[in-house]
Protein 1
Amino acid sequence: MNKTKVAGVAPLREKAQLMSASEIDRTLVRLAHEILERNNGLEGVVLLGIRRRGVPLAERLARKMADIEKVTPPVERLDITFYRDDFSEITQKPVVQATTAKFSVRGKTVILVDDVLYTGRTTRAALDALLKHGRPQRVELCVLIDRGHRELPIQANYVGRIIPTSESELIDVRLREVDDQDCVVMCERIPSNSPQP
């Protein structure tokens, strides 16, 4: 089993691969069809990827929709760093990336796109960040993985796969645009008293 260690974070051990590159691709095709069906096409639809892995997922969804509808929806990126409710508690401060030019979602149907839905706090932060771009007509949420353990009353409209997890398990979505590979892996935290190799 592979082991990963990040500064300030308990080391992780890979337990199982949950999705391959082809399974991710097929899931995105299905999600693209679901979004198109529910919205009766792409009129007024904007895909908004939540940094980091939500952005390449939104771009891939847009390409799938273009294959189906022959129209590509606009894709924007959303950096929620300063909207997180745990920002002051993060030991390793994240680097805030430059965002794309100002865009407006006024009167649009916004599809927020993220890799994993967990407590709901990332989505809440995204909704706060979204408000600086205008008042959308409707906001929907699309996630590749829903792992449960919600702390806020947030539910995704489009879900690639529901994967129940324990509190000690993590879902690691790896995308070639960020990680040079496509897969979804379940990991578990290695207890601090476990013997290290």
Protein 2
Amino acid sequence: MTGFISFVVVFSVLIFVHELGHFVAAKLAKVRVEEFGFGYPPRLLKIGQWRETAITINLLPIGGFVRMSEDDPTAEGSLAAKPRKVRALVYTAGALMNLLLAVVLFSITFMVGTWTPVEGQGSGIYLVSPNSPAEAAGLRPGDTIISINGEAIENVDQATQMIGENVGQEIEITVRRENQVLPAVKAVPRVNPPEGDGALGVSLGQPLARKAYPVWEALPMGARATFNMIASIFDGISAIFRKEMPLEVTGVLGIYNMTAEVAKSGIVRLIEFTGFLSINLFLFNLLPLPALDGGRLLFVVLEWVRRGRRVPPEKEGMVHAIGMFVLLALMGVVFVADYIRYFG
């Protein structure tokens, strides 16, 4: 239940912030906004109205939308009648809000306190793989292993060696968490773990301690973390094209599963993960694909290239309608693939 609640909260925040960006930009540009919707139609209920804008909850919980008057240049308050710069700003406002949200969330993690490598004895746990012996034993990212089978751990090399020497055998692990030494837990390192997972299912490094920063240091650190995350995503895409990494696509079900796993590690990790998802939403929505914000922005750029000659609104609308159908179909395929991956 905790995982489901976490997913609902995270997904709702991401959608609300994204659509709020479109909504505010449209209102500032004096564009008529007819509906602010969570999820995709059919509509389930109308929860309120602000001026001429209906606030609604819809059946398909896979996104959200702001329905504006945007296709007919002759309609009063239509986005289509606005200059190119205004239209471009309205279309990109949602993605930019997700980028800003990521900066804010990463900054919050630095203010609350993040796990930082420190000098000292022990081996820090940086990652715990799902369905691993470490997860079953209750180990969490941020823990520091201080002993295995009663023998004090001096460094990560010793921890790795002792785990490797005891594959297939039960070991006792004592960790320090939030400056408290916990009772020893038992785990059995796997003989044949999944590729890249490790016998225990952990990623180890230097000992970890939580360090908090004042707001004036946390904000630039949050911005740098956001930039570094974007750079790492592009590095990953580049590695996929170079065939150095496999292409893995996940959808709502996969995000739910990851959110539920991250939620077990505490609120700070969940905030950090939400920032990561917000960056992905920022990049995804700017892809130049029909029905996405980037696809609509592409038509604005095309108009500029054609020196003001616009694609007829009915043709552009048809392209986006077809794009939406294809996008929903792909989401359905990814949902089935995720179901097979996690439950099949």
Protein 3
Amino acid sequence: MHIILFEDNLSPQLFPATIARPAFAINIGTYRLIHLVRRLSDNIEVIVRPYLKELVLSDYPWVWNAAKGNRSEPVLILNARVVPHIDIIEHFKRLISEGRSGVVSSPHGMACALFSRENPLPNEPIGASQLLGIIEDKKLPPLEIPIPMLEYTHDIIRHQIRIMNDNLNDRLRTREYKEIADGVFSADGRPLGQYCVMDSSEGPIILESDVNIGPYCFFKGPVYVGKKVKIIEHSAMKDAVSLGSITKVGGEVEASIIEPYSNKQHHGFLGHSYLGSWVNLGAGTSNSDLKNTYGEVVMEYANKKVKTGMQFVGCFIGDYAKTAINTSIFTGKTIGACSMVYGFVTTNVPSFVNYARTFGQVTETAVETLVQTQARMFARRNVEQRPCDVQLLRDIYEMTKHERQLANEPLSL
């Protein structure tokens, strides 16, 4: 079987989650789409935005390319914005066994196309627009299967809450864990800190290997803790929290995703939020995830206001961003990659800025400063700084210049 994961023109709409990674690499419900579909086949081809190509080839060296031979049959073409819910794997297994072909479309783009008995693709590199053209020309019948897709960034948290238990239960079925307390499962059986309280009544709590949990912590499932995570004393993790590997976390975290290598080590609240990689939240940083009116949260994307349909929406922070101590982030705000924020965050924050609007200052950060900072951060975690990592920063800097032209607007609450 041959699988193609492709990014379409709406993938950048998931900013800032997709500014430094393809849409299929976002962690939702503890799974990434590119890892989940490997259960169907190792022949996975990816079509991504050009500036991400070298990074993807370095991070996923096993992806298919033309040098590995022709594309095999059957062929599954999957939008990178598809939500990585374990159920989609079962749907595809059934359709393939039945020899079915067809397409799943939505108002937000084509979700997937399946060719069970033919390979309609040329034996050469192919782009997303050409791929979609071939699918349209084939006039495939519709497949009546639910394939949810991300349209905007806040959908990440919506689906995180919806699918978390299903994906965690799948982990328990397919991997070996030791139950160290009621509903608490550990990959290596490492004991919890003293006087910890674990509530698995609403979902399991899964701890991967080399997790270090301090004393006096509270966990309320569903919760997933990745490898080599450190959770400091007096922390609270509850209601659909997913922590990526090699993160340091403290304070109160609720219904949030933290990607690998990010730190929220000190006290403060993080709720219904998404943090990219290499983010650091200073002590006392907190975000709001509920309006004082208890009404629906409306977010702003590219100067367009979008109703989320959600009462609880926090913040969405891009890779390499930092907050100073006691930073307060208002409801439904986005913070771009490589920015440093201080004080009150009352508006969306562009990438590559020092944001201190409370004090009347928003200034641009030089890209070379971030390259040096990246090298220091990587060295602290024994991670090699590759040419593709440096180039990614420079590409993001050039791509986001238009954002910084709007940074000196009057303060708005």
Protein 4
Amino acid sequence: MGELITAIGLLFFIEGLFLAIFPSRIKNMLELIKNTPENKLRSFGVVFLIIGFLIIWYIKSL
């Protein structure tokens, strides 16, 4: 459970860092996402989900 909370905290930290450093870039990216078809977003989501799972699986197996 502690690892999950640490991972969520790291996620918030990285998101906040990007928002603090690049606010105008984030707004542009959100506009781009808004105009992207849902199927393409879903495909990207699945790809990132698999990559994330493989990274976690690899780290845990060491």
